[in-house]
Structure formats: structure tokens, C-alpha cells
Design a protein that fits this description.
WH_DNA-bd_sf; Arc Repressor Mutant, subunit A; HTH_MarR-typ; WH-like_DNA-bd_sf; mainly alpha
Length: 162
């Protein structure tokens, strides 16, 4: 299914953002399946790759998972060869999480076609429009992160559907 351009005749920006998020979630599931991980483990691995040297606590804070869940998640990533625990340079009681370069490199080929297509799409716009698109997508990411935190931290915003 092709997402229509952001024209009022096709839908509001929030509808396009939701469609984008849905397609991104489906892509995440397909990528996770291709490398033999759960979606949660795959997303956590992505955070570790983006922020090498983060602690388990930092990963738990970003994912909103409990310390026990994070320990199990890191154990699975370590067994699969994607992550190594290394001693923290300043805190002997802590470890940092480091991606294993050759394992990450081996899965980068899955991302390459999409990355190339995104770069080509970006290059098809004039520089002024590129800046606007980058700013809008960055702001959308911020909004998604804020809304996620709001849902996790404020039980009053959740409907009683459980």
C-alpha cells in the first residue's frame, strides 16, 4: 500500500504519522524475525548500537523495562552474539553494553536497500525542503517519545480496557 502525499485531500498529518508508525512496526517485526530476535530484543539492540557503552540501567530507563526483564534481554542478546557486557571504566559495580561489530556488520545488509532508498528520496528534494523534512521528522520523533513516556508514566491516561 502506498502512503499518499501529505495533502489535505488525502488526510491529516496525524493520520500519515500513524500510518508511518504502523509500517515501521511491521518493518521492525520483519527485521527482527530475519535475525532471530523478538521485536523488543531487536529494538533494544538498536538502542545499544546507537549508544554504545550504555549501562543496563540506561537501557532499562529508555525501554521502560524492569531490571529483571533487562537482564534477560541482555542475556539473550549476549547468547546470540550481538552484545558484550564490559566493565564500566569508572564504576566497578556496573557494566556497559557494547555491540559486537562483526555481528552487527553481518546484519547491516538487511538495512542497506532501505537506507539507499531513503537517501535517494532525500536527495530528490531541494536543500530547503530537505531541512524542513528533517526538522519535521525530528519533531515527530520527539512527539512519539513524549507520548510513549506519557502512556507509561501516567496511569490516568490509559483507558480501563484491561
Amino acid at each position: 500500500m502506498k502512503i499518499p502525499p501529505p495533502d489535505p485531500a488525502y488526510g491529516r498529518l496525524d493520520e500519515l504519522a500513524i500510518a508511518f508508525a504502523n509500517y515501521a512496526a511491521m518493518l521492525d517485526a520483519a527485521l527482527a524475525d530475519a535475525i532471530g530476535l523478538s521485536v523488543t530484543d531487536h529494538k533494544a539492540l538498536g538502542l545499544i548500537v546507537q549508544q554504545p557503552g550504555m549501562t543496563q540501567r540506561q537501557l532499562a530507563d529508555q525501554t521502560q523495562l524492569t531490571s529483571g526483564a533487562i537482564t534477560g534481554l541482555i542475556d539473550r542478546l549476549e547468547r546470540a552474539g550481538f552484545v558484550q557486557r564490559q566493565p564500566h571504566a569508572q564504576d566497578r559495580r556496573s557494566v556497559v553494553l557494547m555491540p559486537v561489530a562483526d555481528r552487527i556488520g553481518a546484519i547491516n545488509h538487511l538495512y542497506q536497500p532501505l537506507s539507499s532508498a531513503i537517501q535517494a528520496l532525500d536527495a530528490s528534494y531541494p536543500a530547503a525542503q530537505q531541512r524542513l523534512i528533517h526538522q519535521a521528522l525530528g519533531s515527530l520523533c520527539d512527539l512519539l517519545q513524549q507520548h510513549t513516556q506519557r502512556l507509561r508514566q501516567d496511569p490516568q491516561v490509559r483507558p480501563s480496557l484491561r
